[in-house]
Amino acid sequence: MGYLKYLVFRIANAILVLLIVTFIISALFVKVAEESNRSKMYEELMQWERTEGAKIKQSQGMEAFEQAKAAKKAALEEKYELNIPYWQKVYKKAIRTLKLNFGTTSMPIFGTNSVADIIKVAVPRSILLFTTATIIVIILGIFLGVRAARHAGSVFDRALSIFALLTYSLPMWWTGMMFLLIFAFKLGWFPLSSMFDPQLTGWAHVKDVIYKLTLPVLTYVFVVFGGWAWTTRNIMIGTLQEDFIMAARAKGVPEHKIIYGHALRAAAPPIVTMIIFALLGSLGGAIISELVFNYPGMGRLYWVALQQNETNLLIGLTYFSTVLYLAGVVLADMIYGFLDPRVKVGASAKM
Amino acid sequence: MRWVDIKEGFKEFLEEFKREKTGIAGVILLILLVLVALTAPYTTMPDLPDKWRSSAYWEDNPKNVPPTWYNMFTSQKLVSQQVYYVDNLKISHPSDTDTVIEADYTFPEGYYYGPQGIIIKGINVTLNAPSQAPTMDIYLLRPDGKKIPLLKNKQLSSSTTISIGRDSTISTNVYIWMVNVTEGREITPFEVPLETILISDMVAPMFAKVEPGMDTEKIIENPEPLWGNYKLILEVKNPAPKYNQVDYNNIKMTFLGRSYGTMGTDYLGRDLWAGIIWGSRVSLTIGILVSIFSTVIGLVYGVTSAYLGGNVDEFMMRINEIFASIPSLPILILIGATLGHVTLWFIVVLLVIFGWMGTARIARSMALQIKEQTYIEAARALGAGNGRIIFKHILPQLLPYAFAVIALSVPGAVISEASLSFLGIGDPSAVTWGQILHAAQAQSATTKGYWWWVLPPGLGIAVVGLTFVLIGTALDKILNPRLRRL
User: What is the ipTM of this complex?
Assistant: First the structure.
């Protein structure tokens, strides 16, 4: 029962955090929206004063003008939701968001106004690019990392370590710019923009997508896999020095089995945590890299929302990535309990 | 801990650190970087950030040209910048009212294009009789004996700047001359196609082969270089020398290069090398400050949380999770964009606010172990307060770990700062690598192939990052002996 109780506690905890974060982001975005709406309102009011207001002033005198102006202002305040108190608005937005009712945007994006639909269009694109790339990175990273750990100190291990340290300090978007310069501009192998051609269907569409995705995927893999391999290597080296590995070797277990059966399994919890966070994180896209490649995924959508002040979309996107992160935390906790028998939680921990 | 112990421990640590080759490499790199950052005003130019945004200051530089050393790698050699002051010019006075200034320019053999343009400025005029203002004619005498009339009867004043290549009148004159040579007919300025003048490079044809029978459009599109000695002639007529004085002592004539300096120039003609050198200051400062502050805050927070335990611990960890689960980059962009002018200090604060959570969590788990040790119990039994135990007994144990974390979190901080600048959110009174890349992206430097603009800032970021990663991993190796390979 201890495990279940622990799990329930963790989930409740995550939900509590999600509640608070939703309120915080609603408060923040509503504040920003209110400011921009206020300036928009005054702009419109000034516009009105210069055109219709001036006419009223001429024909009906000052008093009528003041009345008309007050009426116009009230109408505008209602239009821009400035007549509702701030905290009430925040509360309403937060509750609506928690009910997954994200509302609509003022300008259509991807041909729709509904925030939920917009996100539904963008998420598969980010999955296509970043999740694919992340899976490649995980496989490559673990494989190379295990190899390096087996031959620690070898030329391969050193080369991998140096490569990992180098790529760790590279901004991914800059690497993207450089890859664009080299592979797209100089060599002309890949397109300069990764925006899909909407007219293509069927096989031509698939080909177009593959052609346009290759360079971003390559960039991502290039920048990230070194770090993965290096982390895996460090974890594995620690595990390989444990006594049970020596015992297995003494028993005569084949080396291959020791590495993948015993050592990797014992090293699994931190690696699985990394995998969970990498996979969930990949759904959120990457703002700057997508801008560099002009790729229409979640990251670029975020940027568009920020530029156009689409509060509902911003709240929706932020809520989405917060949920992903918290889901990752809960999942990681769950799997830790499964994989690592040393993690004793709940009632058993107190014994 | 007594002072002697600290000294002893430090000595031992130094001994161990000296054996780490990567660590030593990192320290050497760090010293080099700090030197570069500190000497920036002397090695490049003082007060660059003030000049960076004034396009007038960079007027005398060619725009979007690669560095000079690029010539070593290309078959199409590019001429470099050449500046003439009064001493390098031939100034003669054929009569009282006339002055002729000549500049000798050699277009060396094997080079691909001539200069990107010519800028003449610094002629001082004291005007007392405006009706008889001095005027100037400009000609270019070419090695094939042809003479291009560039400008006629241009009225001179002290602020006059003549920029061949950016002035459409001069470009028009060049076009008229070309048609005259190739087709043998005179055309009026109205017959000159405006889009050709405005879009194409009209300076290259001046330094290219133009012969009768050739096609004007083809020359403009694909000029064939004409090597040899050129002469730029300025004829100044001053009809009233008694009233209007023309002073040539400050004259400056610049033949804009097709290549420039150590790192080339960007779209405003700014010297990118100076920008890169100055950018290192911001990157280093922000990187180090952010990582120190966020590590210290994270440590204190984590240790406090672990030591106090119970409900306080739960509460503090929830706050930690709240911060960790908010996606930081969009929030940073939002805050930066709404505030408009953001100072570097404010960026440091923002990055620290979203940068302490990971350290706090690790510090907490480490402190949970330390907390159970007997000496802590002893201290408590002796009546030590919470603050004393946390700061005096637990935190010092985590210090070695803290240094490794500080070093390892610098690259992240540097990249975050660069990312914000890249999105156009940053201190407008500073020159940063991110801002240089922002300009490069805005001018689509990648799709135009301006590698000298994109490559160096990113390399700078990578070098700063690498420096601290090298130091950090060396520290980590010493502190985590399990990673050390036998």
Answer: 0.82
